[in-house]
Amino acid sequence: MAATNIETWQSATVKQVVPVADGIARIVLEPSLPLKAEPGSHVDLMVKIDGEPAKRSYSVVESNHDGTRLVISVMKAPLSRGGSIFMHGLVPGQRLEITQPLQNFPLRVGARRYILLAGGIGITAIANMAAVLKRLKADYTLVYVGRSRSAMAYLKKLSELHGERLEVHVDDEGSSLGVPALVDRADADTELYMCGPIRLMDAVRRSWVGRELDLPNLRYETFGNSGWYDPEEFIVRVPKLNLEVKVPQGRSMLEALEDAGAEMMFDCRKGECGLCEVRITELSGAIDHRDVFYSERQQRQGTKMNCCVSRAVTSPTGSRSDAGAGPAVITIEPN
Ligand code: FES
User: Fold this and answer.
1) Per-residue pLDDT of the chain in tens (335 residues, 90 and over written 9)
2) What angle do CA 53, 105, 135 make, to 5 degrees?
3) Which among 4, 93, 131, 232 is placed 20 to 30 Å from 306, CA to CA?
4) Residue 125: closest CA among 28, 204, 39, 202
């Protein structure tokens, strides 16, 4: 059996935790109910934040043929809500609660050509796909984009495995990726799979749409945690529930509302499914839409947001006339 979308929880033993790039740890897990992890699959696992359990999702970077060994990689986020700090503190022998591999970013085998695009830690969702395409002798290019080489996990290994099929763009070497040029290389027979920061994925999506390429051939995975602006503390008001809640920098609006006792609907918690949508009735500030669920037009309308990832900010430019008057304030009606 291979990865599904049915959540089956199990225990897993941590076998190894080693650094693989600046702030990125490779974590090897031995699950008690092994299941083969197909390319694009991830596991959900329970972390502890301030002693409280919380669910996090991590792509499976590698697994062996029967799934008895799963490898994930975790970046210590500078503004971590606590999950990545917990993960970096794991030691061999420790037990975790994890799901069997789950699949919502499947690789479709049989396309004429593939472009795989990974930005930063997004390589964790893409590396396994590239390895499979290499084994299948498919026509693929793996494009790996990063800030600096020292922050790019698995670079040497990928270069050994993929040779000339690997194309590396490094910002601090002045070789940043030109998105329109990349998308120009795609034709009607090309499928593009990507995972990385929202700005990169948004730029690709715009170019893809601009070239009128088939949208089903553009596939992506999002971590739901990178935005257009740095996260700020803001206030959310829910008159229907008589609530006014402070959303700190390191927590999502969804989490803050749950903490305050609101019963919220959600599924992916990654800005993909739209289930956590709330209606915006008043806003002082602007919305930092971090989802990949809404179209650009829907995001511009500013009447709703996915509260698992999107946030309010005082001003997109930092130049709000009443900047300094306090945090952004958003009034919503919950789902
Ligand atoms: S829970 Fe899926 S978009 Fe928020």
Assistant:
1) 455 567 899 999 999 999 999 999 999 999 999 998 999 999 999 998 878 788 888 999 999 989 999 999 999 876 666 788 899 999 999 999 999 999 888 999 999 999 999 999 999 999 999 999 999 999 999 999 999 999 999 999 999 999 999 999 999 999 999 999 999 999 999 999 999 988 898 889 889 999 999 988 999 887 655 677 878 899 999 999 999 999 987 788 998 999 899 999 998 888 888 999 999 999 999 999 988 788 878 888 989 999 998 999 997 654 444 445 689 999 999 87
2) 120
3) 4
4) 39
Q: State in Å: Cα 311 to ligand 1 middle.
A: 13
* CA pair distance 164, 173, nearest whole angstrom: 19
Distance 267 CA to ligand 1 centre (A): 5
The residues facing 44 across adjacent strands are 57
CA 27 / ligand 1 centre spacing (Å): 26
Structural domains present in the chain: 9-103 (2.40.30.10), 113-221 (3.40.50.80), 234-333 (3.10.20.30)
Q: Which residues line ligand 1 (CB under 6 A)?
A: 266-269, 271-276, 291, 293, 306, 308
Report which ligand 1 atom has the smallest distance to the Cα of 269. Answer: 1
Tokens encoding 53 = 């359990």
How far is ligand 1, taken at its centre, from the CA of residue 75, in Å? 22
Token pair 């809500």: residue: 81
Q: What is the number of the ligand 1 atom nearest to the C-alpha of 265?
A: 1
Nearest CA to ligand 1 atom 3: 271
274 Cα nearest atom in ligand 1: 3
